[in-house]
Amino acid sequence: xxxxxxxxxxxxxxxxxxxxxxxxxxxxxxxxxxxxxxxxxxxxxxxxxxxxxxxxxxxxxxxxxxxxxxxxxxxxxxxxxxxxxxxxxxxxxxxxxxxxxxxxxxxxxxxxxxxxxxxxxxxxxxxxxxxxxxxxxxxxxxxxxxxxxxxxxxxxxxxxxxxxxxxxxxxxxxxxxxxxxx
Length: 182
Prior knowledge:
One of its GO terms (molecular function) is acetyltransferase activity. The chain is α/β, with parallel strands linked by helices. It has one domain: UDP N-Acetylglucosamine Acyltransferase, domain 1 (3 Solenoid). Helices cover 19% and strands 28% of the residues. It has three helices and 20 strands. It has a seven-stranded mixed β-sheet with strand order 3-6-9-14-17-19-20, with no helix packed on it. Strands 2-5-8-13-16 form a five-stranded parallel β-sheet, with helices on one face. Strands 4-7-10-15-18 form a five-stranded parallel β-sheet. It is globular, with a radius of gyration of 17 Å.
């Protein structure tokens, strides 16, 4: 699975990993805002890396957790779904809106292989200081460069260069606006 090869998600080793993630996610999603220490301990056990100052607002869902690495000072709003069959990496100081979905899971184009239950995964990489608007969907294999912005509701099917803004379905680049006068 981690090598990007086809696999069957129902195998015994993956089932155990998924059950572990489910147990930790139920505990995390049941915490209150005043339980930041408990949340931090659960995330430290669930995720591959959780940077200092990470704020991840429940509910949160993922496949395994250990394939997710999140940098310092990143904020992830309510309802995020990360399908982490292979690595998902978020840099430092990212802002992730509500209901954002990041997918690494993919399926064969061959209908016979799909019918047999095969899947694969392609990593997603998100740079530093990236803002992803609410309801955006990031598809397998996408890399989003530092300082980029993804508009709310966008479906990102291709790499996003550093410093650019993309919007729409499929997400396409738009020009940056001049900042308002100070």
